[in-house]
Amino acid sequence: MDPLPSPAPLASKLRNTLVRYHSIGDSEWRVAKKTKDATVWRKPSEEFSGYLYKAQGVVEDVTNRVVDHIRPGPYRLDWDSLMTSMDIMETFEENCCVMRYTTAGQLWNIIAPREFVDFSYTTNYEDGLLTCG
Asked: Which ranges carry the START domain (predicted)?
């Protein structure tokens, strides 16, 4: 098996993409869901057939403690009932990794369990964090 290429160029490109998405004007996003604590917006992607989503909420806690429950790691299995297994296959730096996870079947297994491999990246930005997988 060939070694994985250096993640630094990909991480840099991904950070720039996240900042560009974050900078898209509010008028281009449509509200997909809104509660008293959070809002989720979406817009058609120009890069793939599907939507880009962004979510915003305010949680009174230490930022990294909250994000530890979202990004790959042991806390994710505690709250995400659809995720049945998760392995971090390679960690490139503290907030950059490749992970493999399996989801549970849905609707009496009409939708079969699925396995995914994701590149996960989180970066500090202004007063918060940007993260994607």
From this structure: 10-133
